Amino acid sequence: MSDINTVNPARHTLLEDTQGLLSGTVLVSLSVVFLHGAGLFTGQIAGLSLVISYLSGWSFGAVFFLLNLPFYWLAFRRMGLRFTLKTMISVAMLSAMTEIWPHLISFATLHPGAAATLAGVTAGAGLLALFRHGASLGGVGIVALYLQDKTGFKAGKTQILFDCCVFLFAVFVLPLDKVGWSLLGAMVLNVIIMINHRRDRYIAI
Q1: Could you tell me which residue, 144 or 126, shows the higher pLDDT?
Q2: Using CA atoms, how far apart are residues 199 and 137, in angstroms rounded to an integer?
Q3: What does the pLDDT read at residue 199?
Q4: Residues 119, 125, 130, CA angle at the centre, nearest 5°?
Q5: Taking the CA atoms of the chain, what radius of gyration do you get in angstroms?
Q6: CB 91 within 8 A of CB 157
Q7: Residue pLDDT, tens place only, 75-87
Q8: How far is CA 173 from the centre of its chain?
């Protein structure tokens, strides 16, 4: 997909991948802390997991981990074993970290606008780190790529449609101001990914 001529660099070492996956999941888990602290959510499986956790009282980590389970077979078929294993590890680490952070961090004051913006920035940086090291946080992105391969329907459109469904569902079960601030956070995240995630600037692994 790159339109420039570059020499492919060597594959990441185990140490490089380890710090990349760990750094990425720490940043994304912090975004969940910001969102949860303000009662907000986001798009994709993480957003649906937050909404479900608010309604059910179940922990985000447990919901997120369980919702991702059906997607690993598609990940294996579409992206291979290496990507799938890295993604499974990242999802498990994120689920665990979101259970630990509430015991270490609390907010006396957290404006929803600040929470949304900080969540978008930290999630964007974390996801970029994961993409850089050949992993993801599973979920809809894998299905989107699979459908694109099978039907030609653009992956980005599938993700947008899913996000619209998450936000539409949230409109009926959460306060509208929370939905509005959550939309801000999702926009910040998507802008960061859109501007920075380019294959010609990343090591292909």
Answers
A1: 126
A2: 18
A3: 58
A4: 120
A5: 17
A6: no
A7: 898 889 999 999 9
A8: 22
DSSP string, the chain: ---S--PPPPPPPHHHHHHHHHHHHHHHHHHHHHHHHHT---SHHHHHHHHHHHHH---HHHHHHHHHGGGHHHHHHHH-HHHHHHHHHHHHHHHHHHHHGGGT---S---HHHHHHHHHHHHHHHHHHHHHTT----THHHHHHHHHHHH---HHHHHHHHHHHHHHHHHHHS-HHHHHHHHHHHHHHHHHHHHH--GGGS---
Q: Is the separation of the CB atoms in 112 and 181 below 8 Å?
A: yes
> Which range, of 56-65, 106-115, 136-145, 180-189, averages the lowest pLDDT?
136-145
Which residues, at least 6 apart from 188, have a Cβ–Cβ distance to it below 8 Å?
116, 117, 119, 120, 121, 124
pLDDT at residue 7, rounded to an integer? 37
Q: Name the residue ranges covered by the structural domains of the chain.
A: 14-201
Q: Report the C-alpha gap between 78 and 85 in whole angstroms.
A: 13
CB 197 within 8 A of CB 128: yes
